[in-house]
Structures are given as structure tokens and as C-alpha cells.
Amino acid sequence: MGLVNPNDPRAKRTRKYIQKAFTDLLVEMDFENLSIQDIMDRAELNRATFYNHYQDKYELLELTMTSAFTEILSTQIPPGTQMQGTELLRNLMLAVCEWQIETTKLLNARRTLSRAMEDNAKQQLYNVIISCMAHVKDLPAEEQRRMEWVATMISWSIYGVVVKWSQRQEEPAEQFIEHVLPFLMSNLRTLNLQGSQEESG
User: Fold this and answer.
1) Total structural domains in the chain?
2) pTM of structure
């Protein structure tokens, strides 16, 4: 990360300009051929300003892509929302599908996401699942650990199966999700996250 305070409103605006210029240019040219000068010329900012916020274009790529996933995830599952069961899994998968489609388009399928970006996405999925498990904090420590393990399995499963789908996209995201949901739901029941209607059905 650069030298400025990331919470400063002016710094946030500057990063927004830089990231917008960056994503616009990714549509027009390959990441490998993109220079810092190209980005800052498009953003109409001084080249030196870039290094106040990012170490290099690779850090810019990582932060831009992870920020995009955070926004998509927040749209599908607004903070504070208590989704359960099928609705929770469907929205998580829709978020990852949308993010994979967007990143593939921006990177022209010529560059894969870094391990750091993938780990960040999995962690965000895990955090959402845990946040929907309000009962976990009241469980004994050993039971909490078990729930955390299963939440990890589900978050990694969602990410992995969507990445596999995105490589070919042989069917629409919604159709793909409906095919996969029954298998994920079998794991979700272990977490006791189903709504009361699903449990009684």
C-alpha cells in the first residue's frame, strides 16, 4: 500500500479515479502491456500520485478486483441481512459468478487471478456464512470449531465450483446454480442454517 492515509476522503476519491481509469483501460488493452503512465494519463493525474497509493500495477489489480467482489457481494447480500438456506447459497453463488464473469472480461481470459485475490474472495464468503450463524457464538468451543470448519468447506466449495463453471460457461449462471444447489444444501444442513419452512418441508 502507498504512503497516504487510506481513510482520507481525498485519498479515496483519488483511488476511485485511478481504479476507474485502470478498469476502462483493461477493456482496451492487455494487462501486461498496460503501464503506470497509461493509467495516470487516463485518470488525468500525475504519475507520482500513483505511488502514494499503490506499490505497482499488480497491487492495483489485486485491490481493484477484491474491491469489486466486495461490492458485488454487498449487493447480493446487504450487510446485516440474515439470509438462510437456499437463498443464502444462491446469492453467494450469484455473487461469485458475476465476479468471475467481470474479471474474465476485464482480464481478457489471459491472466488468472492471484492466490491473494482468490483467498480474499473465499474469506469474504466465509465471513458472510459465519455472520448468518448467529447461534454459533453460544455453542461450546469444540462445536464452534466444527461449524467454522464446515463454513470453510462451503465457502471453498462455492468458489471452486464457480471457477470451474466460469472456464467454459456452457450454461447460464442461474441454471448452473440450480444444478449445484442440492449438493451444497446437503452440507448446509450440517450448519443448521435452513429456514423453518425448509426444515418442516
Assistant:
1) 2
2) 0.79
Task: Compute the radius of gyration of the chain from its Cα atoms.
Answer: 19
Rounded CA separation 171/165 (Å): 8
CB-based burial of residue 74 (10 Å sphere; 0-12 exposed, 13-18 middle, 19+ buried)?
A: middle
What is the separation, in whole angstroms, between the first and last Cα of the chain?
A: 50
| Domain-embedded: residue 16 | yes
What's the CA gap between 73 and 156, in Å, rounded? 15
Question: Do residues 49 and 121 both lie within one domain?
Answer: no
Q: What nine digits make up the cell of 90? A: 444462491
Assign residue 44 the CATH number of its domain.
Answer: 1.10.10.60
CA distance 185 to 188: 5
pLDDT tens, residue by residue, 89-147: 999 999 999 999 888 777 765 555 677 788 999 999 999 988 887 666 677 888 888 88
Count of other CB atoms within 10 angstroms of residue 158: 24
62: closest CA among 101, 96, 106?
Answer: 106
- Is residue 183 in a domain? yes
Closest CA to 104 of 165, 161, 33, 180: 165
Residue 30 CB neighbours (<10 A): 12
